[in-house]
Amino acid sequence: MKRVEKTDNLVMTAMMLCLVCLATYALKVPNPFTQGYVHLGDTFIFISVLVLGKKNGAIASAVGAALADIIGGYAIFAIGTFIAKGLMAYVMGTFIELGAKKTAESGKNTLILSHSPYELLAMILGGLTEVVIYVFVNAAVYGNFTVGLLSIPGNIGQFVCSMVVAVFLVHALLKTPVKRYLTFAHR
Predict the structure, then answer these.
(1) Is 155 left (phi over 0), alpha (psi -120 to 50) or beta?
(2) Residue 109 region, left (φ>0) first, then alpha (ψ -120 to 50), else beta?
(3) DSSP three-state, residue 131
(4) 29, 42, 44, 82 — which has fewest CB within 10 A?
(5) What is the separation of C-alpha 22 from the centre of its chain, rounded to a whole number of angstroms?
(6) Which is nearest to 82 in space by CA: 34, 41, 121?
(7) How far is CA 10 from the centre of its chain?
(8) Would you put residue 81 in left (φ > 0), alpha (ψ -120 to 50) or beta?
(9) Handedness of CA 163, 38, 69, 142 (dihedral sign)
(10) Which domains are seen in the chain, by residue range?
């Protein structure tokens, strides 16, 4: 990898980390069952994986979301958030890579979210990974598995809303000069 590419990758990772943190911190809807909150930070987690790939997307997602928890007064969740968001992004990126191999084998070359269902399926798998991890995080924090189970609807709603927003946002960005950054890192 050239020095310019490394610098671009570092800058894009830092930018996505900041966007994840900002969207998580600034747009909170309290969840009365878990004393946590629902947010649109997952939107930028999805986009970070699409822009950066699974490794740097996971780093930006995990650090950005955990930082938002620390800044926002939810430090007790920071480690669980770091794990949940990092694995969410990594699972999504891994599934996209598998789909890209199949797409490449068929001779198609597609942009993000244009023709391949792999990105959407990857978002769903990543979101479900997050939901399962947060069941255990909430159960551990509150010492009650029922609280973990009560977090499921809010977390599903969060990742589904974030997925919809991410899809619309990416499609809008594909019509701008930003389009050149919206290629998954392995393509």
Answers:
(1) alpha
(2) beta
(3) helix
(4) 29
(5) 13
(6) 41
(7) 18
(8) alpha
(9) negative
(10) 3-181 (1.10.1760.20)
Rama region for 111: left / alpha / beta (φ>0; ψ in -120 to 50; rest): beta
CA pseudo-torsion sign 137, 158, 178, 184:
positive
| CA proximity to 123, closest of 156, 92, 169 | 92
Model pLDDT for residues 133-175, shown as the tens digit of each residue: 999 999 999 898 998 898 898 889 888 989 999 988 888 888 8
**Residue recorded with tokens 């599903």:** 156
CA-closest candidate to residue 186, choices 72, 80, 123, 104: 104
Strand partners, 31: 36
**What is the spatial distance between Cα 89 and Cα 87, in angstroms, rounded to a whole number?**
5
**Residues of the chain where predicted confidence (pLDDT) is lower than 70:** 1, 31, 33-36, 102-116, 181-187
Q: Tell me the residue length of the chain.
A: 187
What sign has the CA pseudo-torsion 136, 142, 145, 150? negative
Contact 63, 72 (CB under 8 A): no
| Enclosing H/E stretch for 187 | none
